[in-house]
Amino acid sequence: MEIADRSNVPGLVQPPLRTAKFAIGQVVKHRIYPFRGVIFDVDPVFSNTEEWLASIPEEVRPRRDQPFYHLLAENAQTTYVAYVSEQNLLADDTGKPVSHPQVPHFFKELKRGHYISRERALH
């Protein structure tokens, strides 16, 4: 199967790519909701389902043309994986570790408020 180069297809509009403000291993907090987490992956633009995006109330729905971050997240009650737009994140300067059980899978240690990634095989 051959994959066609679609970069010059007339009418195909691709969103501009922006440089991510936050880095893998960085601890962040949500701007509105009471949770924080560590970034383990970054999408340069929105890359989730339309259903996911439509489930967010329109008045707080994030723009798609920005980086979106995958977080190992925690709040006072639980841990979970979150998908958050850049516009809704702030740096977490507390220096406290994130207590998500999957943190050791992705990261070796926390140094000066930033997690150090484990060496992992890519596929």
Report on this model:
By secondary structure, the protein is mostly beta strands. The chain has one domain (27-117). Helices cover 7% and strands 31% of the residues. It contains 2 helices and 7 strands; from the N terminus they run E-E-H-E-E-E-H-E-E. It has helices at residues 50-54, 103-106, and strands spanning 27-30, 36-43, 68-74, 79-85, 89-91, 107-111, 114-117. The strands form 2 sheets. It has a 5-stranded antiparallel sheet, with no helix packed on it. A two-stranded antiparallel ribbon has the order 6-7. Strand 3 (68-74) and strand 4 form a beta hairpin. It is globular and about 45 Å long.
Summarize the structure.
The chain has 123 residues and is mostly beta strands.
Write the SSE topology.
Elements: E1 27-30, E2 36-43, H1 50-54, E3 68-74, E4 79-85, E5 89-91, H2 103-106, E6 107-111, E7 114-117
Antiparallel strand pairs: 1-2, 1-5, 2-3, 3-4, 6-7
Number of domains: 1
Measured by DSSP, the beta-strand proportion falls in 25-35%
Low-confidence stretches: 1-6
End-to-end CA span: 20 Å
Major β-sheet annotation:
5 strands, antiparallel
Question: In total, how many beta strands?
Answer: 7
> What fraction, in percent, of the residue positions are helical?
under 10%
Structural class comes to mainly beta
Q: Number of helical runs? A: 2
Radius of gyration: 16 Å
Order of H and E elements? EEHEEEHEE
Strand line-up across the major sheet: 4-3-2-1-5
Mean pLDDT: 88
Overall shape: globular
